[in-house]
Amino acid sequence: MKKTYLALAVAAALSATHGVAQAQDYNVEFGVFYIDVDVEGGLDDSALGLDATFHFDTVNTAGRPLAEAAFLGRNNNVFVSYLTYDDEDLDVFAFGGEFWLGDIYLAAAYESESSDTFITEDSYAVSLGYMLGDGLLVGVGYEDGDEREHETVSVGAKYVGQVGENFINLEGDLAFTDGDAVLSLDADYFFTHEFGAGLRVIESDESGVKTAYGVGARYFFTPTISAEAEYLTQDDDKIFGFRVAGRF
Fold first, then answer.
1. What whole-number distance in Å separates Cα of residue 24 and Cα of residue 77?
2. CB 239 within 8 A of CB 37
3. Which tens digits make up the pLDDT trace of 41-53?
4. Which pTM does this prediction carry?
5. Residue 46 phi/psi, 5° resolution?
6. Burial class (CB in 10 A: 0-12, 13-18, 19+), 58
């Protein structure tokens, strides 16, 4: 269970004022990412992945933190990603989309695992949300898979807003699976439109599962080229992720 909490958090984190770079709008973002997993008594491996997101309408980045421009602009999109582990016989393919109908937010994702060694599963997730105000989204989610004994139901919120001349991003998600609850919290501060960094906390009420802590950061070297890193630790388990992305 510990590996699942950490891997999902890193995967989610890697898929996403003033400064040197100037704002530049975009429609497509491509990324290449690396993940190193070290779980005590379990998985000790690294993985490489590719991801791509296509926005149907041009994303306006003017006056916004570049990492959150699509969210603030309520831009409809579809995405696809592929991840392959180095030593383990495991590949993961995923695709999905996010759509806005006024203040209503809809999202769906499908993930398929492929392996000749492990028991794999196909899983899906759907979300429904509502934008209560500028930058404040609340919603509910549902996840299930063909090899899961129990589905997961969640409630969450995301807020991106301005504090002084800069921006903050606050996210919270509370997920319930067969009576067990997992609380995930993210907080980022954007020192400029190009650079943001923050903290991650994952807390579970399941017996024997300790709290996970993490840090993350993303920097845009130019309006279209960025690099980001995420690090999570839970007891003796550690996961590090690094991603480079380009926009056009």
1. 18
2. yes
3. 667 889 999 999 9
4. 0.90
5. -130, 160
6. exposed
